[in-house]
């Protein structure tokens, strides 16, 4: 994410306008030719020729098969791309930073808006192990309700195979291109598109991009209305109708100027080093956040699940901060809330696992503005179980919906009075075969579109919850996005 890059000679490449798909030229030329494009210089000569070659290979593979293919290639990269791509006019972009690994994708080789976005129906050629599926899905919306307003470009589920993807890990970086081709495709047009996308990745924004001042702020629903809903929910839980429901609220913010998403993402990463930073761009809007909660990671048949629920504030004084943590560990209501999340994860994983490790007691996970009860689970999956099956079994979990799941989701859909969109949904990266995955829960998040931003927070309401204290907790959580947007008051 650093703006300091190693540069060789550079040519200006226009940003992609509107849809990043290129129209097929009128020429009958079917093979990519360097002479048909502006002659690149420096590193662009090598990368451009590489893109030309992959485009030609993709068309050849499609001709051999007699049908469409996704043709992939990858190679080391000698510069660190910038998240300034989120400010460009490209329609699809994705960023995911977890631990020491960052992933940046631009453009869509193909898009999947199905409930289970598997690539099993696609024919992969070339370096198929470099192919990744990225994106997410939103919290379940009531039947018949379509997304509108600030969420209008985010369908219930949208995953894409990035046309160009960059992975940085341990000081090294790789770039992967995935080229969709049919026997009738024009390789020169494909190559031109990928040269432009590479140019978007190398583009840099203005040297100084200060965040605009806040013009207005409005709670949705109002704080008084939210307290009334919380009180009604506590009464319902006390009657035994439900065990837990996560009640959310949002704050709609309008700024005096356009909010640059790249600046917000950089602040999220720097202010929340222990969190997973993400951004999903779709047309003119960017869903972004710094979530402390991984839904799960999977690799080599092993799955790691973070159970995160029950919260307390932080203190700048070390002794006071330790006391707050001890109180959280000993709080009965918090323990009940956290236990529901662990039990649900164990119940979901048990039928699909040969081994499952679950610690008896939670520990503290301390973040910049808040601390949580945390229990890590480890499981070995049965043969044939992929990441998509695990994701659907675990989500929505009691940490973002409630318990029992179906009843909690129904209560939220009928009573919450806001459109969550992708807040508390799932975002992440999955390999082409569903064996390796990093998926996170989209909390501590918001959506930015032009001058507008809407930020979200939720709290778990259980028996004994006090609505005013729960409202205060939403303030701690909203502070993550407020600080990232330059509203230092939290």
Provide an overview of this structure:
- The model is unreliable at 1-41 (pLDDT under 50).
- 49% of the residues are buried.
- This protein has a 21-stranded mixed beta sheet that branches.
- It has 9 helices and 21 strands.
- Helix 1 packs antiparallel against helix 2, helix 3 (223-238) crosses helix 9 and helix 4 crosses helix 9.
- By secondary structure, the chain is α+β, with helices and mostly antiparallel strands.
- The chain starts with 42 loop residues before the first helix and ends in a 6-residue tail after the last helix.
- The protein folds into 2 domains: 34-202, no CATH class; 216-484, 4-Layer Sandwich (Anthranilate synthase).
Brief digest:
It contains nine helices and 21 strands. By secondary structure, it is of the alpha+beta class.
List keywords for this structure.
490 residues, alpha+beta, 33% strand
What is the typical, i.e. mean, pLDDT? 87
Output the number of helix runs. Answer: 9
* Strand portion: 25-35%
Report the C-alpha radius of gyration, rounded: 23 Å
The major beta sheet can be summarized as:
21 strands, mixed
User: What percentage of residues falls in helices of 4 or more residues?
Assistant: 25-40%
**What's the shape?**
globular
* SSE run: HEEEEEEEHEHEHEEEEHHEEEHEHEEEEH
CATH topology of the largest domain: Anthranilate synthase
Superfamily (CATH H level) name of the largest domain: Anthranilate synthase
Backbone structural class: alpha+beta
Unreliable stretches: 1-41
CATH architecture of the largest domain: 4-Layer Sandwich
- For the record, the CATH class of the largest domain is Alpha Beta
Number of domain modules: 2
End-to-end CA span: 24 Å
- Quick one: how many beta strands? 21
